[in-house]
Amino acid sequence: MSELISRRDAIKRGGLIAVGLVAPRWLSTIAEADVLQVAKGGKIAKDTVLVVCQFSGGNDGLNTVIPYANKLYYQMRPTIGIEEDKVVKLNDQMGLHPAMAPLGELYKQGKVAIVQNVGYPQPNRSHFKSMDIWQSASPDSKLRYGWIGRHMDFVAGHGTGNPVYALGLSTEKPLALAGKTASVPCFASLADIQAMIGDPDSERMLRAIQGMDAKPGSPESVVQQANKTALDAMDVLATQLQKFTPKQTYGTDPFGQGFKQISQLIATSPQTRIVYFSTGGFDTHARQIDTQNKLLGNFANAVSAFQAEMEACGRADKVVVLVFSEFGRRVAENGSQGTDHGAAGPMLLIGKKVKGGLHGANPDLANLMNGDLKYQIDFRQVYASTLDTWIGGDSGVVLGQQFQHVDVY
Questions:
Q1: 204 — phi, psi (to 5°)?
Q2: I need a surface site. Which of 35, 39, 102, 209 has the fewest CB within 10 A?
């Protein structure tokens, strides 16, 4: 059952939030997060926004960012290798999948940073375990909660209440957004926000329950005030969303609709600093060519429209999109015109303020580890760079240790 359905049922039935003291957790605690903190070693704007885009299923990085000048690439992929004359060339060695031509245009403008050979020690090929590792930023499972959730816990202790600091576009909350005290509201779509707030009876009931008198200064009164603050913020957001219509053309696919809704959020909610969403289908064990062509094309078209939207509404200087997948694929193709679970792969950072270009060495196809690319850059280095330099956190606190930055901002 989705969190949204649970909330609706709770509101309409009333029994789960009796006497205003057992409110839904998302409502009780999201008011704790607020203003961005100045990053160590440099100043940062308070209104920077991070969009995290997850390619679920394990995207094949070698057919996304292609080492077309390396003969080993074609030897290992005689069927699914992308022909050199179709590659969107970035330089004389590397290029993009042909379906990603719109992203290639952004790359030419210096708005795409590609971090190559990203992974972690002792990689795990399980979807679930590797996704937990990426979302918790803890390969050894020593850290609890998600990396964004821990960041939320951190900023909650350094500012006043901002109930919409982070939002998730998903039916279930990903581990990345789980914090010890912070709670991030997740919605399957922006229409769900409208439905929740737009139901007069439900909202009236919840406000009435939360409004029951409590002794000033008591824990109960603090909970009630936090709930009211959160409700007010969501009410304002629902109203703001109605005032903005995206100008760009977006596809009806999940990427198109996802980036369209994210553009609405960013254009209308300046208090929102983190948006998280994911799209699946990247587990290409068979018939990879058609599947990846469709998925990467939808992504490239959507993120290109999104970037144009940000520039049109004056937010391009403030927004970066971070793209990851839980693992790459094996270097050699399998017998089903696909690829099996692998290890290292590329991460993408897209936005006007990233340091565009290729970061890290090109994939070394002659020096593999059990048929996989060896990782050269720990994904936590990218997280650390983003936390410290872009969204004003403290990577040492959030990640449990210091990691060398990747120079992408």
A1: -60, -40
A2: 35
